[in-house]
Specification:
single chain; 6 domains; five-stranded antiparallel beta sheet; alpha+beta; binds zinc ion; DNA primase DNAg catalytic core, N-terminal domain; DNA Primase, Chain A
Amino acid sequence: MIPEEFINEIQAKTDIVELIASYIPLKRMGRNFKTLCPFHNEKTPSFFVSPQKQIFHCFGCGEGGGVIQFVMLYEKVTFPEAVEILAKKLGLEIPYQKADKNKILLYEAVAEASNFFHKTLLENKEAKEALKYLSKRNIDMDIIKKFQIGYSLGKNTLLDYLRKKGFSIDTLEKASLVIPQKDGYRDLFCARIMFPIFDVRGRVLAFGARLLADDISGAPKYINSFEGPLYSKREHLFGLNFSKDDILKNDCVIVVEGYLDMITPFAYGIRNIVASLGTALTLEQIRLIKRYTLNVILLFDSDSAGQNATGRAIDLLLENELNVGIVTLPAGYDPDALIRSKGKEYFFKILEQKKDFFDYKLNILKNTHDIDSITGKTSIANSMLSTIYKLKSEIQRYEYVRKLADVLKIKEEVLIAEARKLNFNNLHSKESIESYSLNINQPLTFTEKIILKFMFTNKKALLIAKKNLREDDFSVPLVRKTVSYFFNTHFEDEFFSSPTKFLGLIQDKEISRLIVKILMEDIPLDKELFKSSILKLLKNRTKNFKEKLKEEIKSAEKTGDKSRLKFLIEQYDKVTSELKNE
Ligand SMILES: [Zn+2]
């Protein structure tokens, strides 16, 4: 945790105009500065910087925030990383709190371990076989050094080494380097080739470890560090720290499964590549990818496990508005084996033959269903529609439905009706539906804007809103999320005197964008308007309740439930007279 006061200090000492001008040219326009937006393509400037409010806002794409948010967006880094960058510019050092000191110790322990493994591989006689194995796989010294590949001897060599360096057993256990046994602790990794797993910034977090020989005792070929305070596997992509620049440059990322599937093509010069660390892609990993590109090529094994992983990844990628290409590898090959046996040119050729999700999925379905039978056709249609409806763009959806209609020889209206019936629109996983509906560009009502502006600038108003309203009184999901955050967080008084201070506290990008949007607009701070806005939302609530009662009355009439009907009608009359009295 970075202390709040420090974030405030960073924000106070960094001038937003100076900061942004150090990245892109700014032109003065009245009280503000403007320029072409660096976050979307445009010909006339709609990106504004306000020196008074110390915020930026793009009227084109809706991006906005304070100094921290600008660095996050421009440098594609996380909130704490942005604070660190700004601190560096100011020549300040972050006064980490105690929890962080422990974390720093973990980073140090894992880094020391990585050096130890690497040195062992290069210098220890017992690691000779490991070096031979790597060179047989065309992994040369440059790559070994770049990826800091190492070797673990086990036998508590690491434990003894790190204890001598002064690390506590507790630290080593939390860093997943040792495991407790009945009679003390022992090294977790033994006689394995060690692949350090780095974060985007190049810090070692964990290890993937491969058994050298195909094992006699039935030990698994690969083991990984356990998840802990440093490492959670769903949040990282193996190799991204090495490949991110090339991913940006190529505007495309190739995703494979295993360590060597990433390293070997990289060694052959295919540098825009990452590994998913053995899982189907997770939402966190997709967010990471989205920082660098929207174009993803999946290169998973063509066995059925690989196919399942690919299927899940496709749906999640489409839901998150990425473009997917899928490459099917020849049976029996993984990317590592393929490039070693067939060479780089062949690998590129395979990449060029990538299919879009539609053709890929249809192909698999055709292999398992009889497209000419009615049941086969139905299953294929349903399965294809479920993926097509993951697309956010109506146009794309329509185009693919048309394509499907063509293939299945079914009218497209029938398919659309079927999709509607199956309610695919609501099938988005909970994770993505949220980010989908939190669109900053969704129009807010004036009523909602007034209430938000008051909540951001006046503590009393926030308390009044909290007492009278519920988050579901608001119609736009992003507003609901923001209101819920403000209702459930305690803020010191000082925040309300300068609402941009919220931007140093709220790490949620969507909420801070909404705050900036509200602050940038000329919304009157009129107390009467505030009161009437709250009343209006309360009235809406009652109206909605009335509508709901109406529905329930209808269904009670259908089922003939007389006592319930009586109760509902009483309620209905009460609500109706309440609405009239206002
Ligand atoms: Zn923009």
